[in-house]
Amino acid sequence: VIDLHTQLSNFKRMKTLLKKEIGEAEAKTLVSRAVYMTSIGGNDYAAPYTANSSLFQSYSPEEYVDMVIGNLTTVIKGIHKEGGRKFAFLNMAPLGCIPLFTAINAGDAWRKLQHW
Known about the structure:
Keywords: Signal. With 116 residues, the chain is mainly α.
């Protein structure tokens, strides 16, 4: 998985290459007409439960959600600054409905996920 900030850096590099390839005006039009689709949450919220992470010893669930949303906001603003104007966001299913979580640790995982 490539983190969001690396993806933003890759986007900026791609935009620079695009300008060289098709010219600044055409690149600007292409970037502004593109739709930037984001699916966030699956790895961000599942990893701490599946990787025996101590992350939730440092953050409450609310603080962790704020951090994930803050990272997403920073990257969306970065794309907007580069000319992106159309954004789409895919919804994430409730974590407690994902079969992996019920299989990992039926009782404990379900109890923990009720906070989400």
